[in-house]
Write a structure and sequence with these properties.
Elements lengths: L2 H67 L3 H28 L3 H29 L3 H9 L1 H17 L1
Helix pairs in contact: 1-2, 1-4, 1-5, 3-4, 3-5
Length: 163
């Protein structure tokens, strides 16, 4: 084989090798881009909704305590309005998550969050009923009870695991 033929063979091999390297590199970049897009388009919005639920759960408990300590009916009505807005926003967040969460582990966390949310809602409704009947001391005792605090914390912890 002549030197010229050997050089052409080396050049052709180098071109094929470089093409293979380019193809593997491009497919790796494409895969990384797809994973990044999946994260940004699907996971981040779900995380944002979960963070909103966590923030609103803390805000809701603070508003309930403020409602208990409010002396003026107008102040109490204003706080109750904020509480109702939070409740509606939470319903919308759960409606979104019902559609957006598809993986089995995520569905399990969502089911756990809903299950642990029910006693929290029941406690809040009991507080509202006690306040409406003028039993401020009983409402305060209920909100400050260890059982209610444990239920609130269990709900928040499952949301944090979900995140």
């Amino acid at each position: 084989m002549k030197i010229e033929s050997k050089l052409w063979l080396v050049v052709a091999t180098a071109v094929v090798g470089l093409a293979a390297i380019f193809w593997f590199g491009k497919s790796g970049i494409d895969s990384g881009t797809d994973n990044f897009n999946d994260t940004v388009d699907e996971r981040v919005p779900r995380l944002i909704e979960l963070e909103k639920l966590l923030i609103r759960s803390v805000q809701l408990q603070g508003d309930i305590r403020e409602m208990i300590s409010a002396k003026e009916p107008a102040h109490r009505a204003d706080v109750k309005k904020r509480i109702n807005e939070i409740i509606e926003l939470n319903k919308k967040s759960y409606d979104y998550l019902d559609v957006a969460v598809n993986k089995p582990k995520g569905r399990q966390y969502l089911a756990d969050a809903k299950r642990l949310r029910d006693p929290v809602i029941d406690n809040n409704n009991k507080v509202f009923a006690l306040l409406n009947s003028g039993n401020v001391d009983e409402a305060t005792e209920l909100v400050n009870s260890l059982a209610v605090r444990n239920q609130d914390m269990a709900y928040r912890q499952v949301l944090q695991k979900f995140v």
